[in-house]
Amino acid sequence: MDERALNEFNAALERAEAILNSSSDAVILASLEGHIRQTNPAFDAMFGYSPDALYGQSLTVLVIDDYQAQLQDAIQEIVATKSEKRLELVAVRRDGSTFAVDIAIAFIPSKMHRTLGIVCSIRDMTYRKRIEEALQTTALRLQKLLANLQDGILLENADSRQIELANDAFCRMFNIAVSSEELVGKNCVELAELAKELFKDSTDFVERIEFLIQNRQIVSQEVLELRDGRVFERDYIPIFFNERHSANLWQYRDVTEKIQSLRRAERLRRIEKLHADIINQFLQTEDVHQALDASCAMVGEALDVSRVYVFLLRQNERLLDNTYEWCGAGVTPQIDNLQGLPFDDLVPSFFPLLITNGIIQAYDIRELPEDLYAILAPQQIKSILNVPLVVEERVEGFLGFDEVRFYREWQPEEVTIIRSLAESYARALERQRTEKSLIRLRDDALQAARLRSQFVSNMSHEIRTPMTGILGMLDLLLETDLSEEQREFAQTAHDSARHLLDIINSVLDFSKIDAGHVVLETEPFNVADMLKDVRGTLSVLAQKNRVQIHIDIGANVPLWIIGDLTRLRQVLINLAGNAVKFTHDGHVWLRVYTLGISSQQVRLRFEVEDTGIGIAPDQQKRIFESFVQADGTLVRKYGGTGLGLAIAKQLVELMGGEIDLKSAVGHGSTFGFSLTLPYQARQDTTDTEMDVTKHWQAIVLDEDDTARYVLAQQLASLGVTVYQVTNVSQLQATTSRVVQHSACMVLLRFKETSISPQLANFIQQLKLNANRSVFFVAICNQDLTLDVDLIDEQLTRPVRFEDVRELLNRLSLIPLSNSATSDKQSWQLPQVKDKQYTILLVEDRDDTQMLISRILFDENLQLDYASNGQEALNLLMQKPYDLVLMDIQMPVMTGIEAIKRIRSNEKTQNTPVVAITASVLQYQTESYLAMGFDAVLSKPFSIKQLREVVTKYLPIPMIDTD
Question: I want to staple 403 with a disulfide (CB 3.0 to 4.6 A). Which of 100, 259, 383, 499 is the partner?
């Protein structure tokens, strides 16, 4: 070898050694026999040996025993063939651990006649093996996943349109006979052409696939309908690799059950709405037939049936009528042919079958009994559905569906709808019949009420008319000079007549409430004043029975209440009147207190308590019944109609309350009721209250300057003119000036335990000689006993403002005259020069004519008479009258007809006309005023009432008194 060649060879070795040392793979140079001659650092690191530690050893020591023979054979083969070879073996490190390796063995050809041997390159395959195992595991999992998926999967190559992947579910869904493995490599275009016949729109199936591929946009849940009724959902996903469209992934899901469930849910929702619409139709439509018409149309269209119809049985006849029919488009109506059917003869099996089963439904009418088939077949009916129509628990017909286009399996919801329609129609018929029955009952009740009201009105007229004469004549008699005995007789007769009138009024009140003619009014009123008014009304009876009436008002009771004062006072007078009547030498309390209060309303509890005879427990249950008293013997002893408590109960209930009773025999009774009423927080003093007090004068006798001043201020704040005196002498002087002008009260404050003789003598003389009423009021301790003939009222020290006010209101109710002729009422019309008043009295009863003429007797008054309305019209045409007093019920022409003609005639239309009638119902009074009467005077009337109405409507001129 020349030097140059040797240098080149050495340089090559150096380069080879440099490469060997820098390689990341383990590199071994070995002899042709496979003995190790040299290793690189990577080998030392990979196998854990130090350099040259394996020098001279065979390469086979680097692999486990199982692969040593394979490696030796490979070396021999490589040397013999002077080639190269790759092996995947399991190597073993110095520490005994094994790992997978990739060994590449190559023959090193001789150079310069020198044999270099073989080179072995070893690469650690641990990581790659792990990757391969992971990929293999993933592939197996994916394969298993695809195999178990219910969705059909197909992956095609975007360029060749060949199938690269499919699963068995895809094959099953598209009825493909081969396995999914066999599909791989098949052309998708050809497969789509074969599969398109499965779909309802076969052309669209293929065109849609091409469109999606060209568009290359993800599509999800696209719905496809198949001819066999199945429904698929399809997802399309274009797959891109390195921004290149490389594949198409198709995924198909069988959603038949899902879609059917949704469609059924939607159908059930529509059925539910239809059910509600049917019910609303019958509830909101007054005409039952109109409701049936609309409902059958809704049902027929919603369910898409051929015919909806109703058959009803004729009343008391064994015939059947088709009373209603709705037909779908193209269906021939049959209603005209199905009238008056003798169903017992034509279809004897129908009603027994319908009633027994509660329904008749047939997919094919040939399944039905022969008689039914015979009547249905000529109408080309294929399927029927019938349910009974049960009205008032009796089968009165049936309602049905027909199908003439095809055989139909009736669904449960369709059965539900036809039952709902039949039930709604049946209930509507029941309501209609009930309404007609109620209308008849109402008309009968109204007629009975009219007859009862008319009877009460007639009886009231027949009784009140003679009562007018009796009371009027007694009033006139009492105005004359009578002896002591005669006055007693006349007064007794007058009291008896007045008591009889009270009984009549009680009966009439009860009838008015019972007939519903009582209408509650609302007005603000003072609670304290109302209770004092009740006490004042019963004061005479209370004095007679030696009963003291006390008022107890709770601290937080509003002063002003809004309600029907008249009716509430009537209730309390009835209850308190009974309490006073059945109590002797005792007490009656009128109480009111608050149960609850809000910003606008108050709940008040009213009670009337007495210390009277009481009521037995067994009698308390019947005490509020009409014409009932606790004990029959009480009627003879105490009198009364037994209507007072019944009226009170009805009025309380009318005002929204409920009356109750607590009582024990011998220990008295307590009647109570609670009402919720609006109230006013404050109320200014009314004109009426000021009118009551403004004419009063008071003299206060008290030696104590402070006490006298305080009492005087309390009286002055109530509008009373007050005089203050300190002894009897000053009292005598002041009284002589004061009592001649107006009502007067003398308030005496006592420190002693009795009245001095000087004061007692003065009081006696003043009571005998005073022209006007003088009331003596003692202000003293509770234990002071005074002569009741001298002292009219008594106040307890210290005196409260409410006590003073209550005293003043109470005294205002007492007549202001003490003379024996106090009941006489003066009557004299003002004298006007050249003027005589004219009154036309239209009355058919002679006794009433005589009574009115005596009451109105005056030298300056001319009274003409007419016995009926026609006579009155004739007289009014002859001359003008200042006033007409006209009875309502008269022969020939009534007052009602007469007032119409009077108001329609220009000559008489402005003449004042006062109705005189025994009708006292509120609505009757209002109707008379609406007819044109100026006022209504109810029989029996008092002298004062008649004279006041005449004075009011006569054209009396104003007289200058200056």
Answer: 383
